[in-house]
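::Amino acid chain::
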Amino acid sequence: MFRLSPHHVGIIVGELGPAMDSWHKNLGISFSVFEVNETNSRLSGSGTNFRMRFGFGLMGTFAIELIQPVEGETIYSQYLQERGPGFHHLGFLVMDLAASARQLESEGCVPLLEGSINELGALAYYRAQDGHCIIEPLQLSVELPLFLARHATSYP
């Protein structure tokens, strides 16, 4: 399947600030914060108006992605409402999102979402048949540090 190491773990949170404070206090991780909404992204299954805040913290080559649903209906707001905060997905960098999608579907993974974030890249979510988690293949169109430099603020 994927020959690359996992890129990040996605965690849904109710409030981004306290979650980032906890990760910073306990593990020394600093975050870059950016917002996503219907004007700068496309997420299948989302309402016409939505807003989310992302805190992205690097730990060497691996990252923590904290996601706070703020407004509207999204896969993240549904998750938070049904299950509360916690682990949501594992993200993997891929070179060809379409090929990765075909491979995941051929192995019985169920597509949950497809989308893109302007100036960052394309993504999809799949429920792993036996893995008890969501897998996110992510094809970046620009280097993540460059995207964060252009669109994020540092925290704390």
